[in-house]
Amino acid sequence: MATGRTSDARPAMDAALVRRLVDTQFPQWAGLPLRLLDPAGSDHTIYRLGEELSVRLPCHAGAIGQATKESRWLPRLASHLPLAIPAPVGVGEPDFGYPWPWALSRWLDGEVATVEALGDSYETAVELADFLTALQGFAPKEIPAEDAREGLTVGTLAARDGDTRAAITEFGGAFDTAAMTDLWEAALRAPEWDRPAVWSHGDFHTGNLLTVDGRLSAVIDFGELGVGDPARDLTIAFTLMSAGSRAAFRAALDVDDATWARGRGWALATGLNAHSHYAATNPRVAAQTTRQITQALIG
Question: Do residues 179 and 192 both lie within one domain?
Answer without folding.
Answer: yes
